[in-house]
Structures are given as C-alpha cells and as structure tokens.
Design goal:
This protein is of the alpha/beta class and 299 residues long. The protein has two domains: 112 residues, 2-Layer Sandwich (Nucleotidyltransferase, domain 5); 152 residues, Nucleotidyltransferase, domain 5 (2-Layer Sandwich). The chain contains nine helices and 13 strands. A five-stranded mixed beta sheet has the order 3-2-1-4-8, sandwiched between helices. The chain has a five-stranded mixed beta sheet with strand order 11-10-9-12-13, with helices on both faces. It has a three-stranded antiparallel beta sheet with strand order 5-6-7. Helix 6 crosses helix 7. It is globular. The structure holds adenosine-5'-diphosphate and 2-acetamido-2-deoxy-6-O-phosphono-alpha-D-mannopyranose (BMX). The site of adenosine-5'-diphosphate has 16 residues, from helix 6.
Length: 299
C-alpha cells in the first residue's frame, strides 16, 4: 500500500503521552497530545480516546487504528508486559471494546505499528530484514523479516526491551531481572537519577543535565547507550537485521544514536548493524496503526 492511501483516524497510547490524529492522504492533518494515565483501566482509556476523537471530528464509518504500549493478543486483548507502566491493563478486551464504540477499529502494539510504518514509508524502506527500536518510557521493538512484520498470537513477539543486558541488575515491572528496559527506558533513567540523589528528574532532565557535563547524569546516559548497543548486536545475531531504526523521545534525543553507534563500533564487524534514525519520528505509531487496520503486512 502507498502512504497516500492512508486516511482515517489513529491513536497512540504510550507510557507517557497519548496522541491522536486525523490522517488524510498519509499526512497528519490534525494532532492532539495529552498525558497518559498509567493507572487508568479500560473504561477510562476508552473515554480518553473518545474525547480526543470527538475533538478531531471522528464520525461513524471512519476507520480507526489504535497503537498501544503493551502486548495485544490475536483476540484483541491488551496486557501490560511492564506492569509499572500500565497498572490496570491485564488482558482487557480492547479490540472488542473499540469496535463496539467506534465501529471500524483495530489495535496493535505501538512499536510493531511503528516498525510497519518505517518499513513501508520510512527508515526501513529497501531492507527486507529490518528492526525498529523505540527508547521511550520503555524499550520496545518491532521486527520485519522477509518484508513481513513478525507477530505472535500472544502479542509478545518483538518485545526486545525485555531481553537482558550485562548493564542490568534491577527487576523491571515485567518481573524479569536485568532487562534492557530496566536500564535504558525512561522510567528506569528517572529511577537511576533518584538513586543518584536527584529525585524528580525525568529522562529529559537527565539528558539535559548530561549535556551540561554533570558526571552523574553522563554516567546514566552512557549506561543506557551501552545497553542499547548490546541489544542491537544481539538483534543482529538473532535476526540478521540489515538495518535498525531507533525512535522514541530518548532514542531521538540529541546525540543518543551517535553514542549507541560508538559503543557498537566495539563489536566485531559482523554484529555492527547500521543504525539510523526513525524518519517518521512520533508519527510512526500513528501511521502504522492505520496501516495495520488496512490489513497492511505485505509489500
Ligand atoms: P511514550 O513512551 O509515551 O511513547 P516518548 O517517546 O515521548 O513517549 O518517551 C517518553 C520518555 O522520553 C520520558 O521518559 C521522557 O522523560 C523522555 N524524553 C522526552 N523528551 C526527551 C528528550 N528531549 N531527551 C531525553 N528524553 C526525553
Ligand atoms: C514496553 C512495553 C511494550 C512497548 C514498549 C514501548 C508495556 C506497557 N510496554 O516495553 O509493549 O512497546 O514499552 O512503549 O509493557 P512506550 O510506552 O515506551 O512507547
């Protein structure tokens, strides 16, 4: 499908922010962004979606794609993998509820959606084996192998942030110890800042402080970059990825990809997979959610 064939509405519920857009001919004609309520259950999340869609002019018969942080199983159930991000989302019937309320609607994981959009319209074009990583509230992933998005019935496929890292020691909200997400995700970076004696500093503040030269913040950013570089090399080994695109507000923070690339340079050549910026940026999950609704999974 071509990007210009995408018209309808899309919502992206991330761990920190929820975005909604009206999309016309593959372009975001209007977008709204509000904070995500991580303690909200299904009903409250649906009410938020409805408020945003009403403001954007969604009407009966309009197509709606919803991308969410967390896994979405084949039967449209939505589960947090990291329960610290979404505390009240554990198998709720999101797909059925969206269709009951909004008609032609569907849902998928946010990083899988972005991977699909980048593969078709962005940084993954021309690479048959392509991986998208988002470094954001968590660390998410989407895998495209032989031009197809890899999906599993339980919705867990592609959750690369739950691989482990030698940099990791802590137990994350998934229950696993030492995940990449527990080192490089935004929540983990904020927790590391608190442990370093800087409570209240979020990941953005840590990055800004590191840019100003503060050693404590610099150490946190450097550790996150090492964990992501290790994940990229592991991904090269596991999937033979030809290219990895990095997105998310941390992934796209000034200098972060360069730091990851510098760490990856220490790996043997075979594992030094080329890294690029996610060219669609924060639009990726929105465009991918709508593309996913159109049944787009083949070229
Ligand atoms: P979401 O996870 O909701 O999809 P983002 O991709 O914006 O949203 O990721 C949110 C995380 O990114 C938060 O931890 C926030 O502190 C962090 N962040 C936002 N802007 C920046 C920035 N300029 N530099 C570093 N971190 C940032
Ligand atoms: C976590 C996981 C993934 C998600 C990724 C990025 C939860 C709630 N989320 O690894 O499903 O794709 O974060 O999401 O378990 P974001 O919120 O950082 O954009």
């Amino acid at each position: 499908m071509s990007r210009t064939a995408l018209s309808g509405f899309a919502v992206d519920i991330g761990g920190t922010k929820t975005a909604a857009a009206r999309i016309t001919g593959g372009t975001l004609a209007e977008q709204l962004v509000v904070p995500t309520d991580g303690a909200a259950g299904l009903e409250a999340q649906l009410a938020q979606i409805e408020t945003l869609l009403t403001r954007l002019g969604h009407g009966a018969g309009d197509t709606l794609g919803v991308a969410v942080t967390g896994r979405v199983s084949d039967d449209g159930r939505w589960f947090a993998v990291n329960a610290g991000t979404l505390s009240a989302i554990d198998g709720v019937p999101l797909g059925a509820a969206l269709r009951a309320r909004f008609g032609a609607a569907g849902c998928c994981n946010d990083a899988a959606a972005a991977a699909l959009a980048e593969a078709r319209f962005g940084a993954g074009q021309g690479a048959a084996n392509f991986v998208y990583l988002t470094v954001s509230t968590g660390v998410g992933g989407g895998i495209v192998l032989n031009d197809r998005l890899v999906q599993s019935a339980n919705g867990l496929a592609g959750h690369l942030g739950f691989m482990t890292s030698p940099e990791g020691q802590d137990i994350c909200g998934s229950g696993r110890r030492g995940t990449v997400e527990s080192v490089a995700g935004g929540r983990a970076i904020a927790a590391a800042a608190q442990a370093a004696g800087h409570p209240g500093a979020d990941a953005r503040a840590v990055f800004e402080t590191a840019a100003g030269g503060a050693p404590w913040a610099e150490a946190i950013v450097a550790r996150a970059a090492r964990a992501i570089a290790g994940l990229c090399a592991d991904t090269a080994a596991m999937l033979g990825a030809e290219r990895i695109a990095i997105g998310g507000s941390i992934g796209l923070a000034p200098g972060f990809i360069d730091r990851v690339a510098a760490q990856l340079d220490a790996e043997p050549a075979l594992f030094r997979v080329p890294l690029v910026k996610a060219t669609l940026g924060a639009d990726g999950p929105l465009l991918g959610a709508l593309a996913h609704m159109s049944g787009e999974n083949t070229k």
